[in-house]
Amino acid sequence: QVQLVESGGGLVQPGGSLRLSCAASGRFSGIMDMGWFRQAPGREREFVGAVRRSGDNTLYADSVKDRFAISKDTAKNTLYLQMNSLKPEDTAVYYCAAADKLYYPDTLATRAQEYNYWGQGAQVTVSS
């Protein structure tokens, strides 16, 4: 079992920045991919970005590319999502997720059903 706990959400003005953290505990060594998803009211959960736990390759949704960046501190088992140039349409609950199966050796998992561990979510609101 793996436990994920997000932190760092809040209210920010358009154009501002926030950094989300995701602290992982448990049998973390078995995790393959780690991802960020978000869900706005009335909408389906959507992929934001992902990184392989043992590597540095990242993959982002087109809507956040060049504005968001994923990083990780392997010593602390912590994943980060740095969000810059935030827009009102980025408002959502953001979820950290982990997958313990290697679906794609040459790329990263992007579908919610491919991730089997989830955090509780962190609210991000972008508004003036």
Describe the protein's architecture and organization.
- The protein has strands spanning 2-7, 10-12, 18-26, 33-39, 46-52, 58-60, 68-73, 78-83, 92-99, 117-118, 122-126.
- The chain has 128 residues and is mostly beta strands.
List the helices and strands and how they pair.
Layout lengths: L1 E6 L2 E3 L5 E9 L6 E7 L6 E7 L5 E3 L7 E6 L4 E6 L8 E8 L17 E2 L3 E5 L2
Parallel strand pairs: 2-11
Antiparallel strand pairs: 1-3, 3-8, 4-5, 4-9, 5-6, 7-8, 9-10, 9-11
Largest beta-sheet details? 7 strands, mixed
Q: What distance lies between the first and last C-alpha atoms, to the nearest angstrom?
A: 40 Å
Shape: globular
Unreliable spans: none
Brief write-up:
The protein has 128 residues and is mainly beta.
Characteristics:
128 residues, mainly beta, seven-stranded mixed β-sheet, four-stranded antiparallel β-sheet, 0% helix
